[in-house]
Amino acid sequence: MTKLQPQASHFIAGVYTEDTQGDPLPVIYPATGQVIAELHQATPAIIEQAISSAQTAQVEWAAMSGTERGRILRRAADIIRDRNQDLSVLETYDTGKPLSETLVADATSGADALEYFGGLAASLTGEHIQLGQDWVYTRREPLGVCVGIGAWNYPTQIACWKAAPALACGNAMIFKPSEVTPLGALKIAEILCQAGLPAGLFNVLQGGGSVGAAMIADARIDKVSLTGSVPTGRKVYAAAAQGLKHVTMELGGKSPLIIFEDADLENAVSGAILANFYSSGQVCSNGTRVFVQNGIKDRFLTRLTERLHDCVIGDPQDMATTFGPMTSETQLQITLDYIAKGRAEGARLIHGGNRLDQKGFYIEPTVFADVTDDMTIARDEIFGPVMAVLDFQTEDDVIARANATDFGLSAGVFTRDLTRAHRVIGQIQAGTCFINSYNDAPVEAPFGGMKLSGVGRENSKEAINHYSQLKSVYVRMGDVEAPY
Ligand code: NDP
User: Which one, 57, 121, 167, 397, has the greatest CB density within 10 A?
Assistant: First the structure.
């Protein structure tokens, strides 16, 4: 327990910083429900320290060469990989996700982002446009001080996915983790510092939505990048609009996973499991509407339920565990309420559906069959381990039904007919899609949503456009002709 208590709640200007005047912020271990650390929410004084130190530090950072900036980010990536075991154990305490997952999907994914954007930093250039003897050149310049606001499902990964492109482009970042999972981002701040990042460039503040809102309202903040739900996205986008600030919005989804009759059955079942039960279902891009073509439905449901019996629910710190608790009691209750709605509206429960009779926020992986498009569990983002299996007959029908949602984050197709795979994916309204796979998120690929699921993209070269701006400079080589 003591090792989980950080030196202080916030990390500002290169040091742990505390203000005990802030409201208490207990950190709860989802596997036991016990308090494992006690922090304080940021006060106005703490927010002021974070913004002013970031503003000062950003000017010098932007003046450094991309090579120098990139070297620091890549060094941080190496340190993260060296410390992956400890960081993963901490992430498991923060989120409840099994160590078997956090060892491969959290700090390592953060290291990938720092390595990738560290590598890109030196090649961020403008262009030269010749206009007769005159010419224009463009400069790719940073935005200034960026605010990152994170969800609680991937706290370490989200901190790195936002910090890496921001810092590579010469910005400062102030990151506010979800108040539910505040620990991981502090370690990333420590490591960036150890790697040589000048003080003030990556500050971490704790607190709830009001801390995020206070930062967005400050005129010194140039951009906000949010990972969160659609209702929060609307509020944050509206607040940012007051200052016409840049935004990236990574929001929720209710994504379709379409399984055609000719799909490889075992791969399709594996895809559906990854699309619904990884991180106990708390993944934004999950394919929670599983459309299964009639001819394969019975075999699919049989193999799915057989394989779910091999799921090991238990102590997330035990490497044998493959399914951990929900991250919070609130999210557990939300999920149980949706399961009750699924039953009440006539969906057929074929697996799970219950809270485990033990301490911690455990719930069984749950599958409903015979789900119809109008049912609540087929329309709302649940953000828990609840798979809705829907039947379909024709390709045209399933495309129309898959698109009949306001969300547009992800989509997947399983089929052996590659022509059909590309034809179907081409018509699906979603930003991050998969063919014969699900939920891969390599840093090299753009990640983000269409429709209500988001604005902008994270990862890949595309993220550079969201953390920098172009200045164009016209250069006249001859005399200036004025009318008078
Ligand atoms: P929330 O929208 O509840 O919160 C997200 C973050 O925003 C939290 O840090 C929260 O603070 C903060 N916040 C809340 N209100 C405001 C406000 N008015 N101004 C500024 N900040 C605010 O999301 P959850 O944390 O519950 O995460 C789950 C959601 O995130 C799901 O919808 C999921 O789909 C989405 N998500 C999207 C991803 C993507 O990349 N597209 C990836 C992961 C999750 P606090 O909670 O501390 O009060």
Answer: 167
